[in-house]
Amino acid sequence: MACGVGIGRRPHVILSNLRCVYQNLSLENWLLQNWNFARSDCLLVYRNKPCVVIGRFQNPWREVNVAEAREKGIDIARRVSGGGTVYHDLGNVNFSFFTDKPSHCPAKNLTFLADTLNQWADLGLKTNKRHDMSIEEAKVTGSASRIIRTGSFHHCTLLVTSSLSSLSSVLQGDPYITTSIATASVPSPVTNLASHSRDVILTPGHVISHVTSSYLARYDVHFPEPELPWKPEQDTAGDVMVVDALPESVDEPEHKTWDWVFGRTPKFTRSFGAGMEVMVDKGVVVEVSDRRLEEVIGTPFDQTTIQQML
């Protein structure tokens, strides 16, 4: 089935000024649960302070240098969609395309982004069947989706001026996890959009401006405003709303709890050498192969603590 812009649907853009990954993920999930998908589409745009976001079915210890992240104050979050692990900072822009289920089409969204940015800055962006965008074989996006009974979103990162050294350093998972049923990320070379722009100054702000104006220009209809906690700041082909704080109706706490971020981790085994292994389920040690480690059974997995016991 061909993908296209929904006929007779009103577009809305929501720009989040929040910089906390837990708040923005909560906002994203709230929109998925509450948006009126029957008559309008929505593009949520947000940026976060340095953080790592893993997919719903991933193992944070396998994907992230957890110790380094904690030392540098880099938050680790788990999102409600699948897919692989991505790094966010203020040089990265996140786009979430909300539609009804029949209109859900990641390929359409990425083609829209590539066309918009190529026409503006001649970047040579290309899309692929894995729902990524790349320049000369180096990725600039990570992409994932979530579909529920009433609607859907497809969200993607976009590296504009991100710290690639920080990305490379913190996305170094534990190599001693020997078995895991969690979804594994596929390592790929990455690049920033700004590194490939010759005649145009590329900043996250410029990218947001061009993408949102192009998104609204694809539609040419007007319908009554949706019932949302925010007021529109402008009215063109649709509404642009700015979020400066989460309303009371948006529940944030779950996204930052240990139970959600680490406690949802599928079962895995971590080797400590010389035949010593620790089995972990839902983030908690459930079995050990060495009697010296028996006291950690039933406690949250912490590789540093275990190494100090040996």
Description:
By secondary structure, the chain is α+β, with helices and mostly antiparallel strands. It is 24% helix and 26% strand. The protein contains 8 helices and 17 strands. The protein has helices at 21-34, 60-63, 66-72, 106-121, 164-170, 204-217, 258-261, 303-309; strands spanning 10-16, 40-46, 51-54, 75-78, 86-88, 92-99, 126-127, 133-135, 138-139, 143-147, 152-159, 177-180, 232-235, 239-243, 268-271, 277-281, 284-288. It has a 7-stranded mixed sheet, sandwiched between helices. The chain has a 4-stranded antiparallel sheet with strand order 12-15-16-17, with no helix packed on it. The protein has a 3-stranded mixed sheet with strand order 4-3-5, with helices on one face. Helix 4 (106-121) packs across helix 6 (204-217). It is globular. The termini are far apart. 41% of the residues are buried. Residues 221-226 and 230-238 have low confidence and may be disordered.
